[in-house]
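Internal ticket #5521
Category: modeling
Description: The requester needs a full-assembly model to guide mutagenesis choices. All entity lines are attached below as received. Residue total reported by intake: 1504.
Assigned to: D.W.
Attached entities:
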Amino acid sequence: MWQYQNDALSADALLVGESLFTLANGYLGVRGCFEEGYGGDVQTIRGTYINGVYDIVPVTHPERLWGFVEKQDKQPNLVDLQSILVELDGEPVNIHVGEYTDYKRILDMEKGFSHRTFKYVTKYGKIASLTFKRLVSFEYREVFAQSVHIEYEGAIKVSSLMNTHVRNFTDHFDPRVSSEEMTLIEMDEIVGSENRHFAKFHTTHSGIDLACLSMHRTFSNASEVSRHQSHSSGGITEIFTASGQLELEKFNIFSDSLREADVEKHVNTIADALEGECFMSLLDHQHNHLQDFWNASDIKIEGNEKDQLSIRFNLYQLFQSVGRDQHSNISAKGLSGEGYEGHYFWDTEIYVLPTFQLNQKDIAKQLLLYRHKHIESARLRARELGHGRGVKFPWRTISGIECSAYFPAGTAQYHINGDIAHAFIQYYLYTEDKQFMLEYGGEVLLETALLWIDMGHFDEGKFKIDAVTGPDEYTAVVDNNYYTNALAKHSLEWTVKVCNMLLAYNQAETEKLFERLGVTQEDLQVMQRAGDQMYLPHDAELGIDMQDDRFLRKKIWDFDNTPQSHYPLLLHYHPLTLYRYQVLKQPDTVLAHFLLEDYTDYETMRRSYNYYEAITTHDSSLSPCVYGIMASRLGYKEKAYAYFGDSLKLDLENTHGNTKDGLHMANMAGTALSLIYGFAGLRVTEQGLKLRPWLPEAWKSLSFTINYRSRVILVTVSDTLQLEMIEGAPLTIEVEGEGHYLETKVFLPLKR
Amino acid sequence: MWQYQNDALSADALLVGESLFTLANGYLGVRGCFEEGYGGDVQTIRGTYINGVYDIVPVTHPERLWGFVEKQDKQPNLVDLQSILVELDGEPVNIHVGEYTDYKRILDMEKGFSHRTFKYVTKYGKIASLTFKRLVSFEYREVFAQSVHIEYEGAIKVSSLMNTHVRNFTDHFDPRVSSEEMTLIEMDEIVGSENRHFAKFHTTHSGIDLACLSMHRTFSNASEVSRHQSHSSGGITEIFTASGQLELEKFNIFSDSLREADVEKHVNTIADALEGECFMSLLDHQHNHLQDFWNASDIKIEGNEKDQLSIRFNLYQLFQSVGRDQHSNISAKGLSGEGYEGHYFWDTEIYVLPTFQLNQKDIAKQLLLYRHKHIESARLRARELGHGRGVKFPWRTISGIECSAYFPAGTAQYHINGDIAHAFIQYYLYTEDKQFMLEYGGEVLLETALLWIDMGHFDEGKFKIDAVTGPDEYTAVVDNNYYTNALAKHSLEWTVKVCNMLLAYNQAETEKLFERLGVTQEDLQVMQRAGDQMYLPHDAELGIDMQDDRFLRKKIWDFDNTPQSHYPLLLHYHPLTLYRYQVLKQPDTVLAHFLLEDYTDYETMRRSYNYYEAITTHDSSLSPCVYGIMASRLGYKEKAYAYFGDSLKLDLENTHGNTKDGLHMANMAGTALSLIYGFAGLRVTEQGLKLRPWLPEAWKSLSFTINYRSRVILVTVSDTLQLEMIEGAPLTIEVEGEGHYLETKVFLPLKR
């Protein structure tokens, strides 16, 4: 189950397929567009992106208030190198215009490439056989390679493009994609030498230099291939003609000045290295890299092949999209589309990181380092927001600046600070990496904690935090959002713990850190007190934790009289309408219960779940997986599996209708979380690993590995729970609340 | 005390003077710019406006959500006809470049014109005497007339402009004025015939046709005047040359297609009528009109000439700016500037109308008719905002559409509905005009009441209203704002009362109205119940009414550590910062106590006043007068007089620093309210007129007239309270809670 096949060819399916067949390597991403185009007026978003590369565009507000963002990052669409047009006896090959048979398109997740074959019938009834393969290299992050193989008894003409006339996708009616057309890249130089087409360009406002280069190589048995070049204002076309058969390999290289001082030199260096490679040899590298990945990170499901394939698809897409260096993170849509303009959100810390924490420590670490790298921007933003101390991380960003133009559902989400702190704490719990905490984690924890004590206040013996928005954006700018307060409490408590740990670990350096940040013992005491006395709103009558101070006093949304066509509500109702009702876009208090279950009791969790689930629309793709995980926690097994199914098919079946704008990375991670933190019930706490496993009836087994403090542990849930210490020292693991000592292997009965 | 004199000539003073010396007649407004300009780089906002004429410009939001406004009205600056350049022996006369003596500038509020005289010293030491007079006619609303008189022993050259190169003022850094430069008018035709310069133009997007026309007439004793015309792309210049002496009259006429079918014909018709007039005859008309106005509306203060002059200045400016027909209202800055883009706000109903209600019934009625005329826009807006029934009046508008681009401090101010209803109710209380209520008031009351019952809900036995913003914009989108709920209660209760009254007055027509609006008896019952059970938040511990459900639980703003330069706070702090604190821009609960004192008790009012006043910044110009009025109510006499003084000098001394953008109409009205509703303590209630008069020590007397239900009553507060029935049937008036029968004249002791 390593091959995802999708042969749909409707106009809609092709556009969605561009996202699903995206190839990427964490640095470079190329949407799965057809080389030769579709023909007709089929819409395409022909995108190529580099993770972390941004342009900055001015933001104008019709009524600008103090501290409103004045500029915004946008991920530019780069020069198009994936286009390769085909003509047979002068007839352009376009599947939406001509006839075809035997169409097949596959994403091979074991070998790391996609291929597409079909037979094309010309208007004179002659039949050609075409195969397109492509990969984005895990070996050479700069490289996107293509292979085209055509067999046809007649004249074959192939035109390979370097197309510089590109732009970003816009939709005036959807707030989730860019609404204004802008030129995000400008060309500096386009040169076509014999073997290398080269273009130098830069992002329009941010001035990041970029280069790309294409190389071509042909193989032909039947006839000679003739070749010539054509130049235009739009770029360079390399034209190949042959008859009978043509095999073309095109290697495309991208570089950017965030990473390389001389982008022109760099693409040529890579090109030199590629002289010794062919498409097949690149495929070999892919396979090796992916073996390592799957060895560490595969999640095996026995008993349902579709579930197995789907979860692998999601893991694969996450692995393709996640940044591998401090310049990059993982955007809401990964490298697969332009939704949310390539911005990084809390999705990283709350959804994606827990997936990678599990067994891809290096990636997890890079994601955290990205945040630390941008702490100065967060510091400046905190000052802009009137905070004398601390940092305020941006709600959405690429370059580190706040890019949220609608603050009630953006900047107001102060929980981003808590989410990031939570991720650093989880990383520490997984790794016990004290040096990392000294160098990076401590600063992030202290600065976010300083912000909480700056913005909150003691009132009636409790520490309270006003005017924030929680994860549920259908309620905005409220006081004492449970989620925010719980995350703040966690962050404050752990900041003090980590400081004490660091003082023991390296007093001198820790004191230097305190000094640099101006942190005093008194600050730590206030943090401790604020954490201890944090107000977590609770409604005694209903016996549930309250989303915020006022939430439960509002009218409940009239679901009965809301037509299905009015979802997602945000596209059909004014924010003020939504704010007036008890209605959730996505879990808020329930998400806090998942992350921090110790702050409440089981019965409160259960009642809260029942209450909030009934008024949640799941208009956010981040919603179902959390409800699924908590359904597992509460023993709602059918529900848990149903939510898992909803999450699993969200992109594969385009259930939100906007997969064309890119894959929903947080939801994809959510499917993995559903397995690990839901069905297997993993929690990584100060007391160590905890599991509460159960297995859906449809399955025979579920297994995955955990990397935990220099150990590799294989977890298999089947009729029993099987724990195997693959590597590392013995460990006591808590299962269903009871400790079990694991030296090599343990079998435990499964609670049914 | 009828002449306002201001001889300041600094660059700042000149710009502010343009607002202070604005001449207008409710239809046409011309800022008080110097005909000849200032010279140097002295800034000017050379504005001419017609009340109710708007362009519509597109609004783009960086993150557009459902129901965000997509277009916005803007008051266009019209063709400049006030410019008349002067040269003496070829030397341009500019007070900021050359030398001058004997400068004097006066606004004559009794005669209705302004005049400006000075002696100008040329670089050769020759002295000229110049006098400029101008008026905007109360007789011919379309007419702005100028008179220039120059005496100079040498060559005099006067160039009179029709300048079509105009634009609106913009300031990127102040949210209170327009930030984007746009072309709001486009020229269609410019024709210069011998005696009439004519231009036809239109508003760029809204397509309102406009025309203007200038006529010139000269008088010269010493020499012949020669005259010629010069045309350019920018317009027409009429050039006059003479020596020794030149007297020029320029009559400027404007018309618009909102009022006139053929604007070209109309300006010529007016021009024909003006052939029989001269500047002096126009002045005679002015005087007559103003005699009527002052007879009805003067407020006399004996004992402080400055106070007397200032209050007259304010009354005069209000009279100049207020619309006289259903196409127009009174914008935040009147016709004196471009702040808030010429929009009409709640300022009309809560500040300006109570001033005109008192003794200018026709004007008050027109202001209400304007709202009724735009009820269909309000109906559509309610639907956009998700309300199945009712109307939602725009927070700011000219043409009736919502123009607020920042909804938390705009659309969310649902109290605008209550404010408008309150004004209709007050009008009814003043006039007992049942026919008016049948034709207009009933519909407005019913539709706004329907909105309250649609948006609110019963909870814990109370009727509650969530997600609104009260008058204090430093707190936004809250639940159960006291002010909003109180106004809603008032509106609901009175809707039922008025319906019962109308059924008794004209059952058939009233039932037709119900039918047209789909109002049932059950609706009226719900209105009654919602009104009766309206939740008015109260804090038992502090013994004060709460601004909203959560307000008192927030941290109090750190006033001690806020530098003076950080006021107004809105220009120095992000809204989220402000929303986190107890800090008021302007009175909220205290304003409700002024309007609806029966909903609370004296001690609660007093404690609330003390509490809220201490945390109010008065960053809104609408603030001090209300605190002053309530200070009177509570017996804080020094405070009352101090606030009155602050209000009185706000524009005259430019204490808010932005009088250049126009006069603060609501504050100006507020100074009158301070006298009538504050010092004299007038309330107009269902039980009749009530007074609680007192007199500041500095004064000998305060007097004004009230028109009440076909009566004219003269109120004089001095050592005693003197009430005189000038006209109409006897009436019982409540003074300090005790009824007094007034047939002709009553003297009552003043409570000290």
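Resolution: model delivered.
Comment from assignee: Chain A touches chain B through 51 residues (CB under 8 Å).
Ticket closed.
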